[in-house]
Amino acid sequence: MAKRFVYFFGGGRAEGEGTMKEVLGGKGAGLAEMANLGIPVPAGFTISTEMCTVYYQNRGKFPAELRTAVDKAMARVEKIMGMRFGDPANPLLVSCRSGARRSMPGMMETVLNIGLTSKTIPGLIAKTGNPRFVYDAYRRLIQMYSDVVMEKAAGVEPAEGMGIRAQLEREMQKLKAAKGCKQDTDLTEDDLKALVGTYKAKIQEVLGKPFPDEPQEQLWGGIRAVFQSWMGKRACSYRRIEGIPDDWGTAVNVQAMVFGNMGDTSATGVAFTRNPATGDNHFYGEWLPNAQGEDVVAGIRTPNPLNEATRPAGTEHLPSLERAMPATYRELHAIRNKLERHYRDMQDIEFTIQEGRLWMLQTRVGKRNGPSAVRMAVDMLKEKLITAEQAVLRVTPGQLDELLHPILDPAAEAQAKAIAKGLPAGPGGACGQVVFTASSAVEWAKQGKKVILVREETNPEDVEGMRAAEAILTARGGMTSHAALVARGWGKCCIVGAGAIHVDPHARQLAVDSTVVREGDWLSLNGTKGAVYLGRLPMVVGSEENPYFVAFMKTCDKVRRLGVRANADTPADAAKARQFGAQGIGLFRTEHMFYGKGAEEPLFKLRKMIHSKTVAERRKALEELFPHIKADIKATLAAMDGLPVTIRLLDPPLHEFVPSREDERARLAQSLNITMAELAARADALRETNPMMGHRGVRLGITYPEISETWLRGIFEAAAELIKEGKKALPEIMIPVTCDVSELKHQAELTKQVHDAVAAKYGMKKIPHLYGTMIEIPRAALRAGEIAAATEFFSFGTNDLTQMTYGFSRDDIGSFVPDLIEKKLLPADPFQMLDQAGVGELMKLGIERGRATRPNLKIGICGEHGGEPSSVKFCHKVGMNYVSCSPFRVPIARLAAAQAVAEEGAAKPKKAGKKVVEGDK
Ligand code: ADP
Ligand code: MG
Ligand code: MG
Fold first, then answer.
1. Which of 275, 437, 576, 711 is most open to solvent, judged by the fewest CB atoms within 10 Å of its CB?
2. Do residues 350 and 258 lie in contact, with contact meaning Cβ atoms separated by under 8 Å?
3. CA–CA distance, 683 with 874 (Å, rounded to integer)
4. What percent of the chain is helix, strand and coil (3-state, nearest 5)?
5. What average pLDDT does this structure show over 673-691?
C-alpha cells in the first residue's frame, strides 16, 4: 500500500494522534489529539513531514498522489464545514500553517484566509452581510501571502526596509493618515477596498508578478512555501546550532478558517492552563474582540485579561472574557481542564470565537521559568496528575539553578543598559561597591559594606578578598579561569573576561570607553547573563525558603538512589553543605587551612616543616603543626555529626608553600636557625619542572612517612575525642595520587600503627573509619583490581584523571581548548563535562575491576564533574554510590540523580521503587 502522506482531522476525530509528532509535527499532532478528544477544532488536514523529504528528493515537485490525497481531504473538510473551497456562493477559506517537530524560528509564517479571490469575495459578502470583514480578511491575505510565499519562499532578498510587507504596511499608514484613522479597525469597507487595489498594484510593481486570483494556486503556493522555508537560510542555521537533522522535515497544516474578526461577538486569544510566570494554578491568558490570528501577540492593540482572578494591576478598565462572554468562557475553562488532565502538563493554547462559537486552534506544552517549573511539578504531583518520577523530569537543572541564587529584579534590569558584557561564570545577581584589591575587599566587608571585587584576573592570593566580596568581575580569563572556578564553587555571582573593561588598580578605577568607575562606586552584575550595570539595581531572592523548592527536593530524594555529598574544607562549608542536603563530605582538603583567614600560624609551621632537612627537624615542625590539623579536622567531623567525611592526606607539591616575601623568609630562617642563603638553597631543592606530576600526594607520605603519620594521628584523635564526648564521627581516610597498590599497602601499614596507638591512648578498641584512595591517575584505574584488595573505597578524582588522560594541563587549557571546541574537534570542555567516552571508560573499567575484587567497594567521585548533570547521570549508570560536588551544586546533583532513575523508568516498565538515599552506606 502506498504510504500515507495526508492525515485528516475534524468533526470529533482524526486519522493521526498526539504521539505522532514525528510525522505530523508539533502543531498537527496537537490538532489531531484535540479532535480525538472531542474538542472543537476547525476541520483540516496535515501533510506529513515525510512529504517534505520527498519534495526535496523530487527537486521541488509534488508527486501526483499528493494532489489526489489533498483533494480528497479537502472534500472531507468541505463536508464537515458545509462550505466549498473556491465556491463562489459559499466559499471555504483555509489557513496554511507550518509545523516542525519542534517549533523553529525561520520557518514559514502562517497564511490566513487562503481562497479569497475576485470570484469568492461577493459570495462571502452575501453570506456574511459583512463586507468590511471580507475586505479586512482579503487585505490580510495579500499582506501575508506576498511576504511569505511570493517573497521569502521565492528567495527574493529585498534591500533593508524594502520588503514587500513593509512597503504594503507603509501604504496602509498613508491611507490611515489621509483618513485620519488611529486604529486599523477604524478603516471602512471602502477604505479597505481601495487599499486592496493599491496592494495589488504594488505587488505587481515590486515583485513583477500579479497576486494570484485562483484558490488552488493560492493553496499550493502556500504548501510549497512551507516546504521551501525548511531549507531557508535561517531555518538551516538554526538546525545546525541545535543539531536538528535536515531529514526531520516540516509538516504543513491546512485548516478551515474560523473568524475572530466578524464583529463584537467574535474574538481571538492565547492562554496558558496555568500561570507560566509563577506556576500558580490559575487559567491565565489574553484576548481581543473583533480580531484575527496574531493580533493578540503582535501588540497592535492592548489585549484584555482572560479572567478576574488573574487580572494584572492596572487593567481594571479592560473587560475580561469571563465577564464579556461568560458562557463561552465557561466552555473554554472546561477545555482547559480537559487538556490539563489529558496532557498532565501546562498547555499553551490558541482559540478563536466566531460569533459566539468557540474553536481551538493549537495546544502545546507551555514554556516556563525556574520557579514556576518547580511549583507546577510539586502541585501536579499533589494533584496526582503526575508521578514522582515525572515530577523530577519536569524541572531542568538550569531551571532549578534559577532558585538557588538571588537575582537582579528583572523589571529593573529591563530598564537598565549594560556597560559591559563578559562570560557568565557564576550565576545569580549582585550589587556592591567596587574595590580593586583583595585586601580592600576584606577590609570593606569587615565594615559591613557590600563590595564587588574587580581584577584584571584573579590568583590564589585573592581568595580571601573573593570570599569577602558579593561578586567578582574580571577583565580577562575564561569559564575555567581561577576566578570562575572559585566563584562557582561558592555559588558566587561572577563575570569573567569582560574585555571592554580597563582595570587600573593603582588609580583605583576602571574605565569602559569614557565611563569611569572609581573605588566605592556601585555596580550591579547579572552573572547568569554576564551583564554589568552602573549603579545599584534592586534584588529579589531566588529563595531557599520557598516551600515548593523544599517539597521538590524531597521528591528528588525519594526517587534517586545515588548518594550526594559535598566537597567542603571548613566547618562553615560543611554546615552549608548539610543545609543543601549533602549526605556527607566527599572531599575534605586539609591544605585548605594554609590559605586565607587565620592561616598565618599553621602556614608558618608548615613552612618550617617543608624547609626542614633532617627527620628530627621535620618531626619537631610537625609536632607544632599537629594541634592545628587536629582542630581543623575535629571541627568539620563535628559539623557533620556522624555523616561520612572523606579526608584527603596532604596532596600538593611542597614548593607551592615556599614564601615569596622577604620578611617571611627572614622569620622562617630565624626560627629554623639557618642563614637566608641556606633557606634559599632548601627552597630551591623543592623546585620542580612539572610539579603536577612531581613529588606530591602519596609520594610525599612515602618519602616522609612522618607527614602521613601526623595527619593520621590528627584524624584518629579528632574522631576518638568526639566519640568520647558522646558525639559521632566517621572519617574516611583517602590517599591521593596513587598509581599502585604497593603505595597503598605502605600507607595502610602506617594507618594501622597510628590507629592502634591512638585507640590505646583513648582506651578504645577501634576507632571507626574507612581506608581508601583517590583514583586520579590512569594507571590506578587500570590496576583497580589489585588496589581494591587494599582499600575500602575509591573516589574518582576526575579533575586530575581528565588532565592525565588527555595530557591537557588544566591550568593551561585556556590557550587551546576553546579553539578545539570552536573547530568542533572537541564536543565540550572535558574539565566541565565528564568525557564519558575516554575518562568515563577508565572509570567503568576501574569500577568493574575494583568490584570484582571487593563487591561492596564504595565508589564516589569528587571532581568538579560531581555537580554537572550529565556527568552525575553517568555516575548513576556506572553504579557509583555517590557523587560529591561543591555545596551550591548539591541540589542540582540531587535532581540529576533523580532524573537518572526517572529516565531509566521511562525507558523500562516500572518496578517497585525501593526506599532511597544513602546509596552511600
Ligand atoms: P504560529 O506557529 O506562529 O503560532 P499559527 O499557525 O499558530 O502560527 O498561526 C498564527 C495565528 O493564526 C494564530 O493566532 C492562530 O490561532 C491563527 N490561525 C491559524 N489558523 C487559523 C484558522 N484556521 N482559523 C483561525 N485562526 C487561525
Ligand atoms: Mg500558534
Ligand atoms: Mg588530585
1. 437
2. no
3. 43
4. 50, 15, 35
5. 94
Scanning 361-409, the segments in alpha helix (DSSP H) are 370-382, 388-393, 397-402
- What atom of ligand 1 comes closest to residue 44's alpha carbon? 23
- The answer to whether 6 and 335 have CB atoms below 8 angstroms apart is no
Please name the amino acid found at residue 86. Answer: G
Residue 736 Cα, ligand 3 centroid: separation in angstroms? 7
At 251, phi and psi to the nearest 5? Answer: -95, 165
Task: Spell out which residues line ligand 1, taking CB within 6 angstroms.
Answer: 42, 95, 97, 110, 112, 255-258, 293-294, 350, 352, 361-362
Report d(CA 548, CA 553) in Å as an integer. 9
pLDDT, tens only, 661-681: 899 999 999 999 999 999 999
Lowest mean pLDDT among 108-112, 145-149, 383-387, 486-490: 486-490
The string of pLDDT tens digits covering residues 577-624 is 998 999 999 999 998 889 877 889 999 999 999 999 999 999 999 999
Q: Closest Cα to atom 14, ligand 1: which residue?
A: 293
Strands (E), 441-487: 451-455, 471-474
Query: What would the grid cell of residue 434 be?
Result: 567596587
Q: Are 591 and 651 in contact (CB under 8 A)?
A: yes
872, 562 contact by CB (below 8 A): yes
Question: Which pLDDT value is given to residue 296?
Answer: 73
CA distances in angstroms from 831 to 204, 448, 549, 835, listed in the order given: 59, 36, 29, 8
Cα 799 to its chain centre, rounded Å, is 22
Residue with the smallest CA separation from ligand 1 atom 8 is 110
* pTM passes above 0.85: no
Q: What per-residue confidence (pLDDT) applies to 915?
A: 41
pLDDT-based confidence at residue 909 (cuts at 50, 70, 90) = low
Catalogue the active-site residues: 482, 862
Q: Whose CA is nearest to atom 7 of ligand 1?
A: 362
Q: What is the mean pLDDT of residues 875-891?
A: 95
CB neighbour burial string for 67-84, b if at least 16 within 10 angstroms, e if fewer: eebbeebbebbbebbebb
The CB density around residue 356, as the number of other CB atoms within 10 Å, is: 12
- Pull the grid cell for residue 364: 502545546
- Can you tell me the distance from the alpha carbon of 656 to that of 460, in angstroms, rounded to the nearest whole number? 11
C-alpha cell at 827: 564536543
Distance 644 CA to ligand 1 centre (A): 58
Ligand whose nearest atom lies closest to the CA of 270: 1
Cα–chain-centroid distance for residue 281?
A: 24
CA atoms within 13 A on the CB side of 398: 4
For 267, the 3-state DSSP assignment is strand
pLDDT tens-digit readout, 739-768: 999 999 999 999 999 999 999 999 999 999
**Residue in the structure block whose three cell numbers are 502541585:** 379
